Amino acid sequence: MDMVLSWGESILYGGLGNLAAYLAAHVLLCLLPAFFIAGAMSALIPKETVTRFLGRNSRKAVSYPAAAAAGSLLAVCSCTIVPLFAGIYKKGAGLGPAITFLFFAPAANILALVYTGGIIGPDLAVARFLLSLTFGIGIGLIMALIFHRDDAAHDRATDTAFGAQGAGMGRMALVFLFVWVALLLAGTLKLNVLTSTYLSFELPFADAQGWQAALDRLVPYDAARGEEGVSLQGVVLIGLLGAIGFAAWRGLENIVEGSNAWTWISLTLIAATLLVAALAVQPVEGGLRIGVTGKFFSVGAALAALHFIVRHRLSEDELRDWLWESWRFVKQIFPLLVVGVFIVGMIRVLIRPEWIQILAGSNSLTGNLAGVVFGVFMYFPTLVEVPIAKMFLELGMHRGPLLAYLMSDPELSLQSILIISAIIGRKKTFTYVGLVALFSAAAGLIYGAWIDGASLLMLALYLAGFIALLAALLSVTRRRASSLKGV
Predict the structure, then answer these.
(1) CA neighbor of 179 nearest in space, from 44, 281, 23
(2) Please, which pLDDT band fits residue 229 given cuts at 50, 70 and 90?
């Protein structure tokens, strides 16, 4: 009985620790700007601006490469991409281009590719880029074909309450959106100019190191295993996040009726918390060393620009619409994210990375599917999956299944599946999950075959056979859809 209780306690602590680490490290500078960007897309951008490049009736030679190019610039994880996906989809983007954006952005953004090449090898980075681009566009095309009726219905039903129909995107709306994207990138990019500390000071806190040691025991930190831990700064940020949630509930829930004091309290708390999150805080003997980083200055400059635009360039209706759409995305997505991160944390306690030597030690179908399954239940935030992949490689994983893992990990995390289902429905989500699993396993098999010595001609034949099989299946699907339409 005691063993069962201890086992259950460790699983529960695993879920709570994973959730605490995620809330402390990734919600504020990653996810929160994404919610505001999605809200701005929905409220301030005319539908025509989105559909011109990403609409279901746009030229495929334009819309799909544009979706991939937009995703390549955002070095964020899938949980941050999902609100942006929801924003462009709600505003009129076709299902296919939106899915390509959703797949390609976390799987093969520029920073992830550079990091992969540096840590594991340029061959894997090149394979990750080429196969993610090819298969990302392929998955988008297949989804658009399978659900073309739903896509057409969605296009007709797209919310057009905000944004002047027939008008282009306003200059101030574009600037507003650009500043939010700049804030998101400033908070997430791992560049020396952003992460370097330019001045520092110490705050008196006698037992700072003792408190941090206690936190390390509760939520272990192990970079090699992707365990991020919780710092003293993280505890403060979680508390501030709770305060933001309460103030936003009081100030944004009825924002359609007008702003109130709680509205401005919530926005002030958000700005202050983003600045706190951008500091470098380190426990030292007798206190806390506070480092003012390049990230702090960049976030501060972006917040100052946003304050000016909100106060002097946005109308009251635009401000209300933006805040309401952002709050609506938070209510739709954030609870599912919390549940998913908690469940993944519990499952990770049960899964041992050492199993991969048995399951994924060779470039077999089973091994590549095992890499995909690890991507679902061993989810790590953006860039963290690369050193984890390095650890898997050292434990005996074949490079083929390793690529399958790297392509599926950013896409098929449990929390992302839950959120995507709330946006596009279960049927489309299950189809998307199946296609990602299939394409990721195929990518691993093709790359693994090359690693094992297969010729380029043989690889081309493998890829051509895979594409031909998909084309045949899609042709059958299209004929069946046409016959049903005729009936």
Answers:
(1) 44
(2) confident
